[in-house]
Amino acid sequence: MSERLIKCPLCKSGNILNHLLVKDHAVSKKEFTLCRCGDCELLFTNPRPTEEEIGPYYDFKEYYSHEDQVRSFTQWLYQKIRKSSIQRKVGLINGLVKNGSLLDYGCGTGEFLQEAKRQQWTVRGIEPSEKARTQAIGKLTTEVLETLAEVPELEAYDVVTLFHVLEHIHSLRKTVKKIASHLKSNGYLVIAVPNPESADAKHYSKDWAGYDVPRHLYHFSEKSMATFQSEFGMELVRIEPLFYDSYYVSLLSEGYKNPKAGMLTRYLNAFLEGYRSNQKAGKPGKYSSNIFIFKKK
Fold first, then answer.
1. Cβ distance 5 to 158 under 8 Å?
2. Do the Cβ atoms of 106 and 163 come closer than 8 Å?
3. Residue-wise pLDDT tens for the chain (297 aa)?
4. Which of 9, 91, 259, 265 matches a 20 to 30 Å C-alpha distance to 237?
5. Angstrom distance (rounded) from CA 110 to CA 48
């Protein structure tokens, strides 16, 4: 049973309009409607699967963030990029706080937490997926929990990270408020999200892999992230680009747009479009994916 939203899940405005019809290429092959908030510009899937029924939409072999095994060249490429990204992410949090406490919401298979722990961080992970959580626990023993509710009430962190996770959370406002309660005074909230206003998103339109319906419930532009800042009492410190994402998202998008094209053609087109997207971006906030770093007021 699907749920239909009558208000924007971010700013609670009733000023919402149908925006785009997007196909779930990965699992169901069904089409889902994206609505747009006329006030904060958030895009969101509406109607959408309930939290109880969305699980099967994650059950496919190409959902690489829940998988350690390498089964294809694309997955091998994803793993290589992920290793580089992990080093950058740890470097980013080291630049905010040295050897602090870290909560990674949606930690996947745990590689980021594992590296942060190796670099003297005190770590905790939240991962709803049993498959991914089991792999993370194998790396981190007892430091990975299933839900945010399991985190001790008074436990607070220097940094909380959500790397490509915010767009998956059903109870958006409730969850963000709970996360904020686990931030220390002047703690940092680090959020990475795809950008529906990027050049590659505009190029691929309904075939843009960043939409990833219905797994991605929301799509945040710079304006909607500015609303996020005011809604939850955060101060936006800075924005960082994720350069690699345009290439990977373009590769997936090429498969959706031109499914009969050969592998070499898809890779060449994806490289050219990813490069073009990064060149057009010009500054942080305009890239295919961006990291927003907030500080608790």
1. no
2. yes
3. 689 999 999 999 999 999 999 999 999 999 999 999 999 999 999 999 999 999 899 887 655 444 555 556 566 666 666 777 899 999 999 999 998 999 999 999 999 999 999 999 999 999 998 888 999 999 987 789 999 999 998 999 999 999 999 999 999 999 999 999 999 999 999 999 999 999 999 999 999 999 999 999 999 999 999 999 999 999 999 999 999 999 999 999 999 999 999 999 999 999 999 999 999 999 999 999 999 999 998
4. 9
5. 28
